Amino acid sequence: MQIIALIIIGAAAGLVATRLMRLQTDLLTTVGIGVLGALVGGFVLRFLVMIGGWLAGFVGAVLATMLLIWIWQKVTKRR
User: Fold this and answer.
1) Whole-angstrom Cα distance, residue 48 to residue 45?
2) What is this structure's pTM?
3) Which of 12, 57, 76, 79 is the most exposed place for a label (fewest CB within 10 A)?
4) Domain range for 6
């Protein structure tokens, strides 16, 4: 089932990409370009999300820690 979805999405992506790039290709080439692009794009996107997930967690932890430090400074100034 995923192969069929990949072919459909790849064909649509190939059609859009070849038109945006003003590239005149036949249907088989357009689908091939699109499927290859979907494979490469899917791989790269998964990698970036994995790295971004770790980075987002770290950034979130730093921001939350900064907020807690700010609150702690405000509370201890009052005393």
Assistant:
1) 5
2) 0.60
3) 79
4) 2-78
